[in-house]
Write a structure and sequence with these properties.
The chain is of the alpha+beta class. The protein has 2 domains: 31 residues; 157 residues, Immunoglobulin-like. Helix content is 16%, strand content 34%. Strands 2, 3, 4, 7, 10 and 11 form a 6-stranded mixed beta sheet that branches. A 5-stranded mixed beta sheet has the order 1-9-8-5-6, with no helix packed on it. A hairpin with a 3-residue loop joins strand 2 and strand 3. The chain is globular. The chain starts with 18 loop residues before the first helix and ends in a 6-residue tail after the last strand.
Length: 212
């Protein structure tokens, strides 16, 4: 007698998604998860930004590496540097007298600049913008210094002094920066742009006392 034949599935047959399709699904899921995690993390600019310690003229601004206090601000189209040389600008020289007190170890800020209301920064320089630091200051002993920075007249209103240790802005990440509002206005800019009386930029001096 003939028996009933029962069909069996072929042993090589696989059920479900092909291997390539399964891999594609896993890849899409992984990418989606990565994007979700990335969205929860702060962006690099925020995590690497310096810590700005703010104040005004006469305030003692405390940072990781020391204290900064601006004692006076003046301006003109002419300055006299610590060596007696006269510098002249078609803009305005802003001369800032300030005191630095090192914390922890002998050191001195090497990045000194003025930031205007638009975020532009104008740094001290050997050639035209004198700043005599006097070398590394001893911890706890006030170091009185002056810095003169040449600005366009439209950068005076709202200007802030920027002070930190490292000379390279790339090294400012996640470090303290002193940011001092100099209290300047457009009236100051106009008066200083019309003045040809030289403002003295004094050399560094240690110990308490009047601004240089």
């Amino acid at each position: 007698m003939g028996g009933r034949r029962v069909a069996h599935p072929a042993s090589g047959r696989r059920t479900g998604l092909p291997r390539q399709a399964a891999f594609a699904v896993l890849l899409v899921a992984a990418l989606a998860t990565g994007r979700a995690v990335e969205g929860l993390m702060p962006v690099d600019d925020e995590t690497e930004a310096p810590f700005e310690r703010t104040g005004g003229v006469g305030d003692r601004v405390e940072t990781r590496w020391g204290d900064v206090e601006v004692t006076s601000v003046a301006g003109s189209t002419r300055i006299e540097d610590p060596h007696g040389t006269i510098h002249v600008t078609g803009g305005v020289y802003v001369v800032v007298d300030w005191t630095y007190t090192a914390a922890g170890e002998p050191q001195v800020p090497t990045y000194v600049a003025i930031r205007d209301a638009e975020g532009r920064e104008f740094r001290t320089s050997v050639e035209r913008n004198p700043y005599s630091s006097g070398g590394a200051a001893q911890p706890g002993i006030p170091r009185r210094v002056s810095a003169a920075i040449e600005l366009p007249a439209d950068a005076v209103d709202g200007a802030r002094l920027i002070v930190t240790l490292q000379p390279n802005p790339e090294d400012h990440r996640r470090d303290d920066i002193a940011v001092i509002d100099l209290g300047l206005t457009g009236d100051d800019a106009g008066a200083w742009a019309a003045s040809d009386e030289p403002v003295e930029v004094a050399g560094a001096a240690d110990g308490p006392g009047d601004a240089p």
